[in-house]
């Protein structure tokens, strides 16, 4: 393994575990986002006829969702109640809320291992008394989350505050063959084929984060070998570490 493509922006922090992974295994990591996010203007959001102040709890699966939620609130001059509860997919997403609110553990919750199931376990303890707003992309919702909320008879609404569009990836894909390509959203997989309709895997190992992304990879006819989150691999870095370690042992 020499060259791995991470379909996300390069981390700002030099202490990112990605860079430690690259040093440890002597690999080259290329970062290039396969999608771009476009905020939905407040005037368009109003057409969804959602009264944000009527919801007692908000579900976030990414930092982008948090950014756009508070952007819409600011544009619409909505004051969020201090009693609002926030349910997040990971601790990292939960901690990002500190940028916008006074962080209190009694109103910010997150799953133990970054999986939907662990977040559901937390929501389940509060669902009887809450009205949930799931902030998501107009063209990319996590169906597992939506189905769980329906099945468990939660009172909820989807709030579309941004949309994903395919990024230009021709230049990075022309740099040569990658040993591994890691995807993080179904839209990232779609972007690959939007840019390269005749793409062939040709031995490239594919990694995916999240159930919907894994399904998108397989639906596209690609072979999936690196999957996260998993019990021993809560993050893509951990999944890559496992994979690279096994590859070394094969030698």
Please provide a brief summary of the model.
By secondary structure, the protein is α/β, with parallel strands linked by helices. Helix content is 35%, strand content 23%.
Gap between N and C termini: 11 Å
Residue share in helices? 25-40%
Total number of β-strand segments?
11
Amount of beta strand: 15-25%
Largest sheet: 6 strands, mixed
Q: H/E series, N to C?
A: EHEEHEHEHEHEHEHEHEHEH
Tally of DSSP helical segments = 10
Structural class: alpha/beta
Outline the low-pLDDT stretches.
Answer: none
Q: What is the alpha-carbon Rg in Å?
A: 19 Å
C-alpha geometry: globular
* Chain-averaged pLDDT: 93
How do the strands of the widest beta sheet line up side by side? 3-8-7-4-5-6
Structure explained in plain terms:
The protein has ten helices and eleven strands. The chain is an alpha/beta fold and 251 residues long. The strands form two sheets. The chain has a six-stranded mixed beta sheet, sandwiched between helices. Helix 1 (17-25) packs parallel to helix 10 and helix 8 (186-195) runs parallel beside helix 9 (211-219). The mean pLDDT is 93.
């Amino acid at each position: 393994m020499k060259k791995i493509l991470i379909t996300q922006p390069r981390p700002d922090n030099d202490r990112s575990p990605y860079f430690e992974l690259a040093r440890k295994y002597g690999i080259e990591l290329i970062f290039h986002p396969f999608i771009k996010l476009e905020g939905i203007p407040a005037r368009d959001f109003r057409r969804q006829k959602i009264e944000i102040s009527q919801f007692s709890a908000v579900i976030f699966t990414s930092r982008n969702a948090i950014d756009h939620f508070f952007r819409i609130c600011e544009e619409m001059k909505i004051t969020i109640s201090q009693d609002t509860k926030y349910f997040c997919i990971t601790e990292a997403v939960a901690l990002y809320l500190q940028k916008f609110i006074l962080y209190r553990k009694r109103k910010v919750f997150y799953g133990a291992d970054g999986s939907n199931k662990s977040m559901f376990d937390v929501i389940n303890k509060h669902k009887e008394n809450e009205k949930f707003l799931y902030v998501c992309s107009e063209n990319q919702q996590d169906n597992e989350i939506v189905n769980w909320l329906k099945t468990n008879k939660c009172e909820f609404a989807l709030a579309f505050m941004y949309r994903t569009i395919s990024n230009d990836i021709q230049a990075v894909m022309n740099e040569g063959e990658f040993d591994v390509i890691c995807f993080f959203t179904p839209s990232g997989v779609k972007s690959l084929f939007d840019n390269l309709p005749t793409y062939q895997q040709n031995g490239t190992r594919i990694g995916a984060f999240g159930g919907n992304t894994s399904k998108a990879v397989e639906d596209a006819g690609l072979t999936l070998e690196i999957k996260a989150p998993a019990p021993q691999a809560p993050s893509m870095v951990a999944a890559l570490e496992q994979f690279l370690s096994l590859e070394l042992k094969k030698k």
